[in-house]
Amino acid sequence: MPRIWIEYLQFLMSQCDLTKTRRTFDRSLQALPITQHNRIWPLYLKFIKSHNLPETSIRIYRRYLMLLPEEAEDFIDYLISIERWDEAALKLTEIVNDEHFVSKQGRSKHQLWTELAEILCRHPDEIHSLDVDAIIREGIKRYVDQQGKLWISLAEYYTRSGLFDKARDIFEEALANIKTVRDFSQIFDAYTQSEEKLIQIRMNQENLSEEDEIELDLRMIRYEDIIERRPLLLNSVALRQNPHNVEEWLKKVKLLENKPTEIVEVYSDAVQTVQAKQAIGKYYLLWVKFAQFYEDNGQLEDARVIFEKAVTVEYVKVEDLANVWCEWVEMELRNNNFEMALKLMQRAVSIPTKKTSYYDQNESVQNRLYKSLKIWSMYADLEESFGTFESTKAVYDKIIELKIVTPQMIINYGLFLEENGYFEESFKAYEKGIALFRWPNVFDIWNTYLTKFLRRYKGSKLERIRDLFEQCLEYCPAKYCKHFFFLYAKCEEEYGLARNATTIYDRATKKVPPSERMEVFNIFVRKVAEMFGVTHTRSIYEKAIEMLPDAEAREMCLKFADLERKLGEIDRARAIYAHCSQICDPRTATTFWNAWKDFEIKHGNEDTVREMLRIKRSVMATFNTQVNFMSAQMMASAFHQQDKEHELNKMNDLENIAAEANQQKMPEIKNAVQFVKSDSSKINNGG
């Protein structure tokens, strides 16, 4: 039955009788069951599209959508093709708001929204049935990632409608609400281009009236204002992205230079908006810069009000609160309010009724401030500058009592007491510091203490200074002890016994790191030669040659031999050369062998030269044998590795043969393959 109708309808379509054909299509749809309508409708739609009958076509499409609502996109495309923008926008709005609608053309809701916005903006005069402003604003709320384009579309709608002031308001509103730099760039560029076009159109007009020229000047001023405001607008975008970004708030203040009223508003907004725990950057700087702004403008009382509020804020770190107090004190110092500065420090370090740990995060930073080293350091500096001796001493003692003192503060305390003539008190301060710190932090304290003690008492309290040096060296690591050994030895040289000095140098050679022993031995030799004569240095040279590594021992042997030569002890010098030759490879230690050769030429004879050459050959043979032995070991190791690899290859071959035998179901081979570990022969070094 549908086949007959289809052929009949196709025949009528060829006759070009529009009314009869349309009525026949309607009769066919009435005659056929609804399950077969899908065979008629494609032909019907083809028929109406082939003729310019927009009203009739729209009514027929509406009937078609009652049967197949999912074909709405086809209807929309037809409406667009015949430029029925109002109805196309209505239908697009309908399917966009339908949560169950699925595009047959594979378009997303976002793409449909984009198409709707484009229709609304480009044909404002034809759209009468929709509230364009409300629709696009709804899209802006829904599609956050496309806000820039949608704002531009809304502004374009008003521009095409001739409402230029309204379009400008839309651009300003957009710039005040967007949160991404990408959207800002799109909107700002569109805004400036729109203003440029309006200015260009006005400038191209001929015979401008006075009012037109005034309007043109206003547009130029407005355009320049937009360009000038760009950094500030961009900064506002960054703050909307993250209102807790301290750097952006401070940048905004710089952009508002020479605008004090607006700067105060920005600072007020910043300190109220930014949360300390979420702040990016140094939160306390907002308060400090705010107060400094008032100070720079001569409003000290207002600056103090800001600081009073700042010290009550719950910061994340104690250091932040300490920085606020210090900045406040420095402001008072800059304005010569020294008593006020001292009072502020006393307030800052006041100990709460309930003592807490500095690192207890459950306690407020205000309750933990009394253990801030920064605060106490500044307090001590202020007391030294403007306070009394007793008040300064009390501050340092309190710092030590709280155990927040540093080695440098101990040294400063000692120097302060010394400057005021309290030498023993300064030594007690150093001893307190020594009791608090360990190595290596205590190095500077010991160094200052011992130096000051020697300068004060010289040799009058020798036993006491000896006890101090022994106490220092008892736990001093090898890395730091050289300096104190030299200082101790110098003390004995100047005020004590030379014998004690040599003992100290001898102890130093045993305790210092190997890298510093050569230096210690050289000084030891020089000092003994000065105190007892060069002949007493022989035992030191012998000890040095025994303790030092070969390279340094070789150098020490040359010095020792030269000493014996100068003393006329030629045989002793030759014996030293012979002894040292055992650690001097003739191929590398050419300096030594040349020195011995020169020595024999000057002080030896034919027999001694021959003996030197014999020793040289013997030493060379010894070193060659060692090299050959090492080479033999390396070759043996290489051959052993090759044997292992060869055995492994054999094993792999046997495993492959066994696998093939299993596949062919051959009898199982029972002979086990065994490996015998080979013994590498040892090379014995003869004589």
TrEMBL record:
Chief localisation class: nucleus
Residue ranges occupied by any Pre-mRNA-splicing factor Syf1/CRNKL1-like C-terminal HAT-repeats domain in the UniProt entry: 277-666
Entry keyword set: mRNA processing, mRNA splicing, Nucleus, Repeat, Spliceosome
GO cellular component term, pick one: post-mRNA release spliceosomal complex
Annotated ranges, domain Pre-mRNA-splicing factor SYF1 central HAT repeats: 73-274
InterPro entries cross-referenced by the UniProt entry: HAT, HAT_Syf1-like_N, HAT_Syf1_central, HAT_Syf1_CNRKL1_C, Syf1-like, TPR-like_helical_dom_sf
SMART domains: HAT
GO biological process: generation of catalytic spliceosome for first transesterification step
Claim: Nucleotide-binding is one of the keywords in the record: no
Pre-mRNA-splicing factor Syf1-like N-terminal HAT-repeats domain location: 1-70
Compartment(s) of residence: Nucleus
Keyword Nucleus in annotation: yes
Organism superkingdom: Eukaryota
UniProt signal peptide: none
Alphabetized Pfam families for the sequence: HAT_Syf1_CNRKL1_C, HAT_Syf1_CNRKL1_N, HAT_Syf1_M
Sequence similarity: Belongs to the crooked-neck family.
Protein name from the UniProt record: Pre-mRNA-splicing factor SYF1-like protein
Species this chain originates from: Euroglyphus maynei
Record lineage: Eukaryota, Metazoa, Ecdysozoa, Arthropoda, Chelicerata
